[in-house]
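> call design_seq(struct)
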């Protein structure tokens, strides 16, 4: 039987930050395989290395050892096969919505007709086409994040890497954005690796939740979320949802109760 190439493959990943006196181990040994088209979230204690892990997959931070592959190709630097979305929208304040989404395509030298068609496609996908002439300052926080997502999708990346993209939003807007993200993800068929500190957000969005230990990070548990799709906010009210939430909360609580592990390795000599 032929094994399909995974969207993302991480093998024995290790990240060490070095100073003159010591080496601080941020990620100890992480291996993870993410199938095509799946939505996978990472949760863990604050400062455990979730964002560091995501940035290594994105090619923004060098790994110390191990392998990171996206669709079979080893990651060495940032590339158009990976779209990265951060907590802040990072839109250009002097450009309107249309031109913000078109910016990367212009840099790539896309023909104007093709560029315009792509921008229209993704602004309609995120339901902001009618706001195409507005400046970022005229949009809500949730709308700015949708513009950011449209700009990323316009590059047609193979995977989406999302680092707490809704962390700065109020609770109601955050829930609305979760529903919107699932709709967009379903239509775009991208593979997603999503970092969040919000357990309920992870359960609601994901096919799989990966629980990181405290630093230095290892995977303490991988939990498959069995809810069918499409999902709506009523899912939050179900007893099964609470069971998943409590299972993950217990795992994280156990991490907090553990004795603080020595994460520094003194350099001899």
């Amino acid at each position: 039987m032929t094994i399909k190439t995974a969207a993302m493959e991480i093998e024995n990943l290790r990240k060490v930050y070095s100073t003159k006196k010591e080496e601080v181990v941020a990620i100890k040994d992480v291996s993870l395989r993410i199938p095509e088209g799946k939505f996978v979230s990472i949760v863990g204690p604050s400062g455990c290395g979730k964002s560091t892990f995501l940035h290594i997959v994105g090619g923004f931070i060098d790994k110390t050892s191990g392998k990171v592959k996206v669709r079979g190709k080893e990651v060495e630097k940032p590339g158009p096969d990976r779209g990265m979305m951060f907590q802040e929208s990072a839109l250009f304040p002097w450009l309107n919505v249309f031109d913000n989404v078109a910016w990367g395509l212009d840099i790539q030298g896309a023909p104007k007709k093709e560029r315009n068609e792509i921008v229209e496609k993704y602004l309609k996908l995120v339901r902001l086409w009618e706001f195409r002439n507005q400046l970022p300052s005229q949009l809500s926080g949730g709308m700015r994040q949708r513009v950011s997502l449209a700009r990323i999708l316009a590059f047609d990346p193979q995977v989406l890497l999302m680092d707490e993209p809704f962390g700065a939003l109020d609770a109601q807007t955050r829930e609305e954005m979760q529903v919107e993200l699932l709709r967009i993800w379903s239509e775009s068929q991208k593979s997603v690796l999503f970092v969040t500190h919000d357990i309920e957000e992870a359960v609601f969005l994901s096919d799989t939740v990966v629980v990181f230990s405290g630093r230095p990070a290892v995977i303490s548990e991988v939990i498959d979320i069995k809810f069918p799709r499409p999902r709506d906010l009523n899912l939050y009210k179900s007893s099964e949802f609470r069971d998943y939430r409590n299972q993950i909360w217990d795992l994280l609580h156990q991490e907090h109760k553990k004795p603080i592990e020595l994460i520094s390795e003194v350099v001899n000599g």
